[in-house]
Amino acid sequence: MTLSRKRAAELLHDTADLIDGEKAKAYGEPEESFKTIADLWTTYLHHPISKTDVAILMILLKVARNGRGRFKQDNFVDICGYSALAGSENDSDT
Length: 94
What we know:
This protein is mostly helical. The protein has helices at residues 5-20, 22-27, 30-45, 51-66, 73-88.
């Protein structure tokens, strides 16, 4: 396996398109989506789940999918996207 800065930059570019492109238009604001998911998971699990938890758990879902030994670029792009969104949140997560 060879690591490529160029390919890494392309993945990040794809991630930027994902965060602010067609999927963004289809799914709406991540703030609202993550809050809705957090509220549903909180109700189901009877344990508080934050928007940041949602992003991290979605990252783990993508890691699990990728752990099957098959490379799928979409998983890495989504991981970058969830990570960037979680990292963009300030400390006032409620």
